[in-house]
Design brief:
Blueprint (H helix, E strand, L loop, with lengths): L3 H17 L16 H28 L4 H15 L3 E4 L2 E3 L4 H8 L1 H18 L8 H25 L4 H27 L6 H38 L1 H6 L11
Antiparallel strand pairs: 1-2
Helix pairs in contact: 1-3, 2-5, 2-6, 3-4, 3-5, 4-5, 4-6, 4-7, 5-6, 6-7, 7-8
Length: 252
Amino acid sequence: MFNKKITLTLFIYLTLLLLIVPDRAYAMHIMEGFLSPGWCGLWYLLTLPFFILGLVAIKKTVTNDPKLKMLLVFAGAFAFTLSALKIPSVTGSCSHPTGVGLGAILFGPAVMAVLGSIVLLFQALLLAHGGITTLGANAFSMAVAGPFVAYGVYKICRLLGAKLWLAVFLGAVLGDLATYLTTSLQLSLAFPDAAGGVAASFAKFASIFAVTQFPLAVSEGLLTVLVFNLMSVYSKSDLIQLEVIPDEVGIK
């Protein structure tokens, strides 16, 4: 089972990071009331099937091994804390890590559709980041698109024989960037440029996010590798059971 001392230490560390970051920001991804009711409803509908698949996957995971509940909670806490480390990007929005790559690699992307949605809901209710009307859109970008890209990149890298640390790093980085590319697409669809249409609008949103998001994505990748390495030492049996690592110690 995931070592309780390590869990507590990492959680305290991440919480302290959250507390020392200035709390002045604008919104998480897409703010409340920023999308029309039609777009809000569409993104809710697109997210729902993945959320249902995630519930089934979580039930199967905890049924097969109830001890993995703590690891599930940690994956959710990791995503919650990292995604709350925000810096202003453009009026009405912000940039931040997502933290979904770790959980996607451990449990698969469907599980993160649930955990990520819960994270976004709590942030909307408790921290006023994002919103209820835009929850579907934000969940699709951070809890669906990001985890699926992170998991896919990780799996492809491992199939190609990449080192474990590199696969984890690239999965976390590209999963983070996929979230913001999806957000840029969502905004460009809702607010197409008067002259260039959706393509021009997408280029504008993506370029603005890129300034702050690229360094954040790299930082998230490095932190994910660090946390993963600690887990491979102190919770090796869980990772082997999840078929994330073979019988090896550390990230090699």
